[in-house]
Design brief:
This protein has ten helices and 17 strands. The protein is α/β, with parallel strands linked by helices and 438 residues long. The chain has one domain: Metallo-beta-lactamase, Chain A (4-Layer Sandwich), CATH 3.60.15. The strands form two sheets. The chain has a nine-stranded mixed sheet with strand order 6-5-4-3-2-1-15-16-17, with helices on one face. Strands 9-8-7-10-11-12-13-14 form an eight-stranded mixed sheet, with no helix packed on it. It is globular, with a radius of gyration of 21 Å.
């Protein structure tokens, strides 16, 4: 038994050593500056080359006011997951980072510019717009001071601003069409959202349907067909997106079936005063050997009183290893639990940071406990939180910028590029990889 413990300890030390020595991807084929000279020719200081057919791009767009991820699938199909635009004040006790690219550019405008710059030439729209849940850092805030859409009856903020400027094929969220679970979100004012935010969003959906023929759907847990390739699906039959979780329903791991993990009695559910986070949509994207997991703001807070609030553990039962994951709930303290991370075993984690307390040191510790060689990429990091994360700083890969995961054709390997977010030139600051898919 003592020998076994020694062997485990020795292996752990070797993994830590490898992670530190691979800080810039040196052991993965890059030069000492992290420049990728072996794959696409993309180097630091240059503008990120455009997407090419066969590649999969997953782009975490940093505005400093929430979360937004832009996808270009191998055939050129596009999807935007969230478009956060919090109206938080920089003087808040838990302050946000500087707004990017500057304080005069709204988050919706910054996201729109990014999408328009990188969208494939053969596809001038967003095929899918997925809202993970109804929080302002994912959908956009509401104020009568916000501009009205030029041709609509709604105010532009986050999702609604992007959708007003770029046509969308299908809008997907957890509440369509009634928006009444677990309460009527159009009428009930909660900590999670206000009726004004939801009603403004519904006005946008109705306008998009009238204006450019958008469709709207509720996220279908268990389905692997709701989000699919639109341009050339037959050419990439090894690409699939499986809907894992939403509204407390979790895929069973078989076919497209799902089960409800929340109390069937609505009064019992509401007695726990659940946060909007636990209703988040979550999915797994697979492309050949490459796997990616994203689930909005899933968390486990309050599970000691109500065990079913730990929605992450319910999800973990149907998950396996992934190469890259978007950190749940920005890597805060009540999320990314060991039950889920031990199953995902992520090789890389992208953390969309927009508050001073993100990510939490204990959460970062759990990432490394699940995979000692894990590569962590942050869109932002405050000086105060840098002090809290002091012991981890030598191992965290990057701390500021747009983060682009570019998966090679067939999904066998991927690169990670960190782009300058202070302007709209999208120049490469750092290059990591190539990383081999599992």
């Amino acid at each position: 038994m003592r020998n076994l413990k020694f062997i485990r300890y020795f292996v752990f030390i070797l993994l830590i050593s490898y992670s530190c020595n691979n800080e810039k991807g040196i052991a993965s084929g890059n030069d000492v500056n992290g420049n990728d000279s072996t794959k696409t020719g993309a180097k630091t200081g240059e503008v990120l080359p455009a997407w090419q057919e066969g590649y999969l791009d997953i782009d975490a767009i940093n505005t400093g006011r929430g979360e937004s991820t832009f996808f270009i699938f191998p055939d050129g199909t596009t999807m935007l997951v969230d478009a956060g635009a919090s109206l938080i004040s920089p003087s808040n006790p838990i302050p946000p980072p500087p707004q990017k690219p500057d304080s005069n550019t709204s988050p919706g405008s910054a996201i729109t510019a990014f999408v328009k710059y990188f969208v494939p030439k053969n596809n001038d729209k967003l095929d899918y717009m997925l809202l993970s849940h109804f929080h302002v850092d994912h959908m956009g805030g509401y104020s009568t001071a916000l501009p009205m859409a030029p041709a609509g009856d709604f105010r532009m903020s986050g999702i609604t601003e992007v959708g007003a400027k770029i046509p969308v094929g299908v809008i997907i969220d957890r509440g369509y069409p009634n928006y009444d679970y677990p309460v009527d979100m159009k009428e009930v004012n909660t900590v999670a959202h206000t009726p004004d935010e939801v009603k403004n969003y519904i006005k946008f959906i109705n306008w998009a349907k009238r204006s450019y023929g958008a469709k709207a759907e509720q996220f279908k847990v268990g389905s692997d067909r709701q989000i699919s390739l639109k341009i050339n699906p037959a050419k990439y039959n090894d690409f699939v997106i499986r809907n894992i979780v939403a509204n407390g329903r979790v895929w069973t791991g078989k076919g497209d079936s799902s089960i409800n993990t929340f109390p069937g009695d609505l009064s019992e559910l509401l007695a726990a005063k659940p946060t909007e986070n636990i209703f988040s949509d979550g999915f797994q994207l697979s492309y050949g050997k490459f796997d990616y997991f994203s689930a909005g703001d899933l968390q486990y807070n309050g599970k000691s009183t109500y065990p079913w609030l730990d929605i992450e553990t319910a999800v973990s039962k149907v998950m396996g290893p992934v190469d890259v994951m978007k950190a749940d709930h920005h890597g805060t303290a009540n999320t990314d639990g060991s039950a889920l991370l031990d199953k995902l075993d992520p090789q890389a984690v992208v953390v969309d940071v927009w508050r001073d307390i993100q990510p939490n040191p204990e959460t970062v510790s759990r990432f490394y406990a699940a995979n000692p060689g894990c590569n962590i990429f942050l869109t932002n990091l405050s000086d105060a939180n840098k002090e809290r994360l002091n012991t981890f700083m030598p191992r965290i890969k990057s701390t500021n910028g747009h983060i682009v995961v570019r998966v090679a054709p067939g999904g066998s390997e991927y690169m990670v590029y960190v782009l300058d977010d202070t302007n709209e030139k999208y120049e490469i600051k750092e290059v990591f990889g190539p990383y081999k898919s599992k």
